[in-house]
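re: ur question from yesterday

yeah so i grabbed the chain u mentioned. its 498 aa long if i counted rite. heres the sequnce exactly as i have it in my notes:
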Amino acid sequence: MSGERSSAAEDEVGYEPTSAMKRRVVGLAVSAAVGGFLFGFDSSVINGAVDSIQEHFALNAFVKGFVVAIALLGCALGAYIAGRLADHWGRIKVMLLGAGLFLVSSIGAGLAFSVWDLGLWRVVGGLGIGIASVVAPAYIAEISPKRSRGGLASLQQLAITIGIFVALLSDALLAGVAGSASSQLWFGLEAWRWMFLVGVVPSVVYGILALSLPESPRHLLATGKRDEAKKIFATLVPADHVDQQIADIERAIAEDKQGAKASLRGDRFGLKPIVWIGIILSVFQQFVGINVIFYYSTSLWQAVGFTESNSLLITVITSVTNVVVTVVAILLVDRIGRRPILLTGSVGMAISLGLMALSFTFATKSGDAVSLPNPWGPIALIAANAFVIFFGASWGPLVWVLLGEIFPSRIRGVALGVAASAQWIANFLVTVSFPPMSDFSLPFTYGMYAVFAALSFFFVFFKVPETKGMALEQAETLFTNARGRQRGPQVRSTGDNA
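ran it thru and got these structure tokens back, copy pasting raw so excuse formatting
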């Protein structure tokens, strides 16, 4: 999905959109970001079900981790093909495809009769989530003004965190009503099955919202539907600026066609350096182990002495914290900038993960039961939530912002798909490896995540320049030409480029 050079809310002569136009842009961005809600819901709904699934199907640690992680392989494939599908079919049809796949997956997983068909349905859901994870931020970028692009792009991560919260809250409520996740609830189905079936609701809501969205003006112009694009711009741009907006996008589309044969290939390990930056940002976002908290935290807290109900409550509180700090990041990203927030987040994550590793060195084991003596139990709990705070306020939302900014328009769709796929694969590797690694050594596991958090600091410090307040083509040029970290004052633009 190639990005256009002009947004729908302001142009180079510096007009101010009306309040109604601003609300329209925000409304479209919020609706599109519901795809992120599905991502968060799907990725965390298994948290409350994983122990019951292990018991029901008699799984060992490796297969348990594989069932949790296998959806991420579908996510990687969905992310990889999303750009091509969206360019061919349009953004809205692809959003509907994602909603449909997640709907089918929710029903199939809830009624699974074996671990293997459960895995299959999770892959199907992963395809839908991977598609939504790429199409939603691309759509948002295509309608957002540059001055608020960071905040609007961060809505994707906010929706992800809300999805995580709702999934974990519904897990806790269902387990509470049934007595435990393994107990029967309604119609003879165990509570853990209803945890998946609840996913039908957000998938239907996302489909309905997608039907209410207008197609991306850029896609309409790229497919020759100029009159339709003009009608949409009339709701986003003052009338005397509509023609300029259309002209800017058509010029960008022509340039994209000239570069249609552009390749990701480069002389550095087979890919262009800018593509590697996107891949490494994505991998670091996952290799700090954030999804261990949201996939396995209930099992983890039970393992160190908390009851199932208390473990679910702790996990819900953690997810609420994640939502709050993501809102903070959205408010600050276009004021403070990308680099300072990322660097602060890396330091905070490294320290909190180091404390978790230290805490688990004091764990004692009696048979299969593991416990943390005082004060290390509370320290581990505080450190885990501090880790979520630092991640949610920095690397969680800002990686998505940067992935929408750094790639040249002629390769943006393909490059974004590759980076998102790398993120899903990294997520898969962390998720599938955690159960056997935790059986081996929790201090080693969290210590390794702390090392990756520390390395992420140096990567940002030396390789990621500041892009706050820049037009898209300025940001992508800065990254393409960057050699080490940016020095001196940041470049600003009065142009209207999203």
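noticed a couple things. The first helix runs from residue 19 to 44. also Strands lie at 364-366, 369-371.
anyway ttyl
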